[in-house]
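Person: Please work through this fold.
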Amino acid sequence: MLLKSVILRIVAASLLVLLSASAVYADGHCDFAEEAIKLGGIAPLSPPGATGAGVIIDWAYQQAAADVNADCGVDIAGVNHRLEVITGDSEGISERGQALAERWIFEDGVRGVVGGYHSAVALALMKITQENRVPTVFAGPWNDNITANGIIEYEGRPPRIEDGVDYIFRTSPANSMVAAVAAKWIIDLGLDDVIIMTENTDYGIPAAADERALLEAAGIAVEQYNFELGTEDFVPILNRVLARPEPPDAIHVLVTGETGFNLNQQMAELGITPSVDTICLAESFAGDSEQFWAAVPDGNYCAFTRVGATPALFGDIATELNAKYTEQWGGVAPSFALEPYDSVRLLAEAMDRADTYTDGAAIVAALESIDVELAQGRYYFDYGSHNPDLPEGEPTFMWHQWPDPIVTVVQYFEQGQSALDAAVVYPPVYQTHGTDYIELGASP
């Protein structure tokens, strides 16, 4: 029923966006060329992908295109071109991502690719967009290699910049950026024993490895369990957790979408976490409070990592987009609405500045030099062919990586609470309730 409700809402939202866009075309203030500029937009719209996120990602693509077109589209040599995003269903499966890229490039004639969400899909798809010189701005996939692959070997392949141009960019954080915040929070809380439960994907396994390395370096014992996306019954593994001599201090779930929600709810039903003994650290999708509470009604006091600015930090573009999101969906626009929206706007802006939508290398050059304020903040890229020498100690994933995504740890403390009202507990600079953790049953 939840999935059916979400699908009905996205159909209604898409109709509203299309109607508003049609009104723009009909009012006569924009004189568009016959040929539209097409982008391919990746979204997991079917299981085992995170369908709840997927429908919002598609909504963000269409809203971004409508907003660009409301400003007379993309100006190429004095001619206005409409922007069109063709959303493809990745299902969260890498092979589906490859098929989408091939269809977009060889059949639909797309001039850029945006979005993503699942790292496995992005890693598979980006090989095709790179080889065919299609500028790609990922929003959502966190695997470090999505951008690190620009200057180091990956899977035995030569670096993408062998021919002098790397077509892959990212506006969401790398795994290592998120893992550092989550691990630092656990370390600063003084915990000794942690379980990581991760999906067996190109997102989950590297994310768990990054966090585990940081925790073990701090002397914290770490136990890890891996799951396939689509798993429904976690009880056999959870019984092993219950059989431990001592409960863990925390369990961090790195399992996306509905699978992760099922895991969180089953742990809550068994009294594992959240509990007085064990901190619940859910996957970041828990920031979609409506879907979280519908799927995890016993998840009060769960914490989660949140990527993206809070409403208090929203600029004009984010405030306007958030108002539209709230009207359509309720709650606050999450990162997986802001990121794909910005990826569309970034590519449109780069094409406008490059004065072309067909010359991929020129669009890449415009992206590398871009400095523009959008929904998530000010976008720029420190390292690329415009500045290829990373300083010693700078991680390789910073190549074509937006350096300023905000990552926080947020905690619910009231049943059914909006993510807007939940407490930001870490890092201290963003803390909203004067504490780095709220004990079960307490109120800050």
